Amino acid sequence: MVLETKRLILREMAFYDVDDLFEVLSDPEAMQFYPQPFDRQMTQTWIERNVQRYTQHGFGLWALILKQTGKLIGDCGLIMQEVDGVDEIEIGYHIRCDLWGKGLATEAAQACRDYGFSQLGFDKLISLINPANIASRRVAEKNGMTLIKEIEWRDKPTCVYAIERSDSTA
Ligand SMILES: CC(C)(COP(=O)(O)OP(=O)(O)OC[C@H]1O[C@@H](n2cnc3c(N)ncnc32)[C@H](O)[C@@H]1OP(=O)(O)O)[C@@H](O)C(=O)NCCC(=O)NCCS
């Protein structure tokens, strides 16, 4: 286990998570801002990349386990992204669509923010979000972030939200 919140456990994802994660990432509505919903192979690759990130960086997207059921209901975590030639640390999140609107992404994102600042010592955290992804923008705001710029990122218009470490977030 990496982190615990009131309703969630964040732990490293593993290959046996593929079915539960596929349920989250294959949903067309959830993946409307991605080139396409994930198939099983893409979900497996997603897990592989995060397992590599744990080894390489000591962090990545973690599996979100709903304590009430013990089931994987999404992912959330920290990933390194190059933005305008600079390595930044992004907080990312995906929640199973039947559980949207209950504050779960915000709860997970806030825990990752606090961990990034206080345990990993980052000075700044960002979220990269499609301008039309209102729910994700709202999560970034509730995570204390502000919109700092809009850029073309990987050939797509992208809002860059950011928060810098302060005494209250460290
Ligand atoms: C973005 C996502 C993770 C949010 O998860 P969640 O658990 O529902 O988020 P929360 O409940 O913590 O907060 C969502 C907020 O967005 C708001 N919201 C959702 N849809 C909205 C809409 N269409 N218009 C306005 N506000 C909206 C909710 O009301 C809530 O804000 P509030 O607490 O002020 O009422 C979820 O929608 C998701 O998995 N989407 C697909 C994957 C994705 O886009 N990930 C982000 C990539 S950058």
Explain what the structure shows.
The protein is globular, with a radius of gyration of 15 Å. By secondary structure, it is α+β, with helices and mostly antiparallel strands. A five-stranded antiparallel sheet has the order 1-2-3-4-5, sandwiched between helices. It has a three-stranded antiparallel sheet with strand order 6-8-7. Strand 7 and strand 8 (156-164) form a beta hairpin. It contains four helices and eight strands, in the order ββααβββαβαββ.
SSE blueprint:
Blueprint: E1 3-4, E2 8-11, H1 18-25, H2 40-57, E3 61-66, E4 71-83, E5 86-95, H3 104-118, E6 124-129, H4 134-142, E7 146-153, E8 156-164
Helix pairs in contact: 1-2
The structure holds coenzyme A.
CATH architecture: 3-Layer(aba) Sandwich
Backbone CA Rg: 15 Å
Fold-level CATH name: Aminopeptidase
Task: Output the CATH homologous superfamily.
Answer: Gcn5-related N-acetyltransferase (GNAT)
Q: Tags for this entry?
A:
alpha+beta, Aminopeptidase, 5-stranded antiparallel sheet, 3-stranded antiparallel sheet, 8 strands, about 35% strand, globular, binds coenzyme A
Outline of this structure?
The chain has 170 residues and is an alpha+beta fold. It has a single domain (3-164), classed as 3-Layer(aba) Sandwich (Aminopeptidase), CATH 3.40.630.30. It has helices spanning 18-25, 40-57, 104-118, 134-142, and strands at residues 3-4, 8-11, 61-66, 71-83, 86-95, 124-129, 146-153, 156-164.
